[in-house]
Amino acid sequence: MSDHYLVQMTTYPSTPSGGSDCATLVKLATLGAVVGGSVAAATNLQRVQVGELTATGAAAETGKTALTAAVATAIGGAAASSIAEQGLMRLGIMFAAGTLALYGLQRWSQARMNTDE
Description:
The chain has helices spanning about 20-50, 55-85, 90-115. The protein has one domain (about 20-115). By secondary structure, it is mainly α. About 20% of the residues are buried. It is elongated and about 45 Å long. The protein has 3 helices and no strands. Residues about 10-15 have low confidence and may be disordered. InterPro entries: MamC. Pfam families: MamC.
């Protein structure tokens, strides 16, 4: 009698090497925050140097832009992964969804600021 009957192996569904969907979205959001925040920091630094903005205002604007970019990137990534697995179509969907989310968040933020004044 052979030994292969003595060991019964059970297979479980494996998690993709990239991690869970939530972890992937968190990574995308972090990347979006870093890129968006870096661009905003550079732009706001120039505005501080010419006296158009205070250092505190620049920090607040940079933080707001980084957070908005994080949310928009996560929304874009979620939309892209639900429609396409890879390739140019996925990138196009991610770009379009991220752009729309960023535009919507900026408009909403501006509308809130205008009613507060």
